[in-house]
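Troubleshooting log. The previous structure file for this entry was overwritten by mistake, so regenerating from the original sequence record. Sequence copied from the archived sheet and checked twice against the printout by T.R.
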Amino acid sequence: MRKGFSLPYRQVHLDFHTGPDIPDVGRDFDAAAFARTMKRANVNSVTVFAKCHHGHLYYDTDRPERHPHLPRGLDLLGQQVAALHAEGIRAPIYISIQCDEYAANTHPEWCARTPAGGQVKGGGSVFLPGWQILDMSSPYQEFLAEQTAEVLEKFRPADGVFFDMCWDQPSTTKWAIAAMRRQGLDPEDEADRGRHARRVALAYMKRFRDMVKRSSRDATVFFNCRPFFNLAEDIAFQEQVEIEALPTGGWGYVYFARNIRYARTFGKPCMGMTARFHKSWADFGGLKPYAALEYETSQMIAHGARCSIGDQLHPRGTLDAGAYELIGKAYARVAEREPWLHGAEPVAQVGLFQLPTGVLGTTQSTSGTEEGATRMLTQLRCQFDIVSEATGDLGRYELLILPDALRLSPALARRLRDYLRRGGRLLATGTSALSADGAELLLPELGIRPHGLSPFTTTYVRFGRQIAADVPPGDHVMYDRGVRATPARGASMLARVVEPYFERAWNHFCSHKQTPGDRPSRYAAAVLNGRAAYICYPIFSAFAEHGNYPFRLLVRNVLDLLGPEPLVRLAAPTSAEATVMRQGGRTIVHVLCYCPERRAKNLDIIEDIVPLRDVAMSVKLPAPPRRAYLAPHGERLALDCRDGRAGVVIPVVAGHAMVVFE
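Regenerated output below.
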């Protein structure tokens, strides 16, 4: 990218997947009105379509894939790009990769195949609407390269190219099988089919990225639908990381928050992508409440990400006026706050290790463990990144968390020991740093003696005096199986496991649910050993599954003993989020409080913003600030500086407040 380029903060991703049965494509398109609408909506980048999932092209071309009902005199993409540029709006170009209905129908032999020989198809049945998936091992890749070369030639220099539908796709076509055999892979082995799919994807990403860069040196390049668990390998081919996460479209309100914390550690610009739709893509006529879009864009900028809002252009080429009123209102807020966004970097005290799920052929990128940890640590206002074994400098984090089931390689175990020797802190949970059966300890610094997995599915925790703050008295149920462990010499037991009378079974049970607790066992629920601590349960995946608040209290109180001192303290409900950014000499704290509600089956939505008033907050800073104020309007806040912390009271948090210390 050219020197000084900054990825815009206010993008629209303008889908245009238009089937061949639509008769009047582009009939009402007005280039000047199109661009003016975007300008009035405060948009400064629009991703526009060269090729859609139907395999149709929307520019001036003699190729037969051009949409059959796009008038011959209409260069839709060319007019969009020219009109947007005339308004000073960037116009990256969209090209679909593994979804191409035209190619699939013309060359069915190019479609990806299952081990049973069936076609890989969205929706499963041939009688259900769904995209046919192409095999990039087949001659389809050359077909796609010819299309891409033409687009790059016609639109040189391109602002950027957004390649979509780019996951690792296992296949058993004759081309895939032949390639696997040449590489010494076994086509009958599922793991080898996955390895081949990964190699194919990495190779075509390099190929198409190089094509773009040879044509348009300063163009951005992004491959969408990549599995985030493989980002350490994929990042070489990505100019930025865009996180597609329509909360109401199946992704939920945690997906972006957990993936941005990993993506931002790679030093590339990041962007969050939501949409204006009530549900998911192509929800024509569906419009989400403004409060929801405000939260989604506010959450993006609070984590240092740019914003992208998805829409779909009507086949006739017209934009929805209501949608752009909605988008314009949200983006006016973002534009006002941009002086406090440019160059701001997230501040993280904690590194949470990612579990490498690696589900082949999908965009699955995180486990239930990461979802539970993201929910819990956000509720505790921890400032954390998600890290992996590929992360370079672990020493920049004051605390590392090994969640639930992290397998330690010898190399990572050595790095963690060195990290502890240098003064770091460590929390492990479940079978992390143990063998999978919980019988062998791989990191003696945890200060435990493991005795294998508990024979009981459900047990109870009795909190010890040191970590009993705010915990209701009694024994608290833990629904998931833990590890039997006792403290090693010098370590202290913080909580004890209470085991049930017996394991519940069909012929051996008591009452409606779990067997009640019998008496305290000799096993520890939590142990502290100097700068390391251990919780014997898969506490984060359990929190994702059950949401039981004593799970959060257990982690919170162990962390309070272990340290470090929290960067942010906020007197607000657990639904309030806080993120810390540094921008030169400024520290900026974003406080968000929007509460999604279950207002329909399988649909969480935000329709109302309920303000919080007189919210006390303190931040740990390296030096006392000269002043504190609310951005963007500059309202001064009274400062209370003591013990290395700067305290303020925020008069009103109406969804999102930005507190600036400088």
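Residues 359-366 have pLDDT under 50 and may be disordered. Archived copy saved in two places this time.
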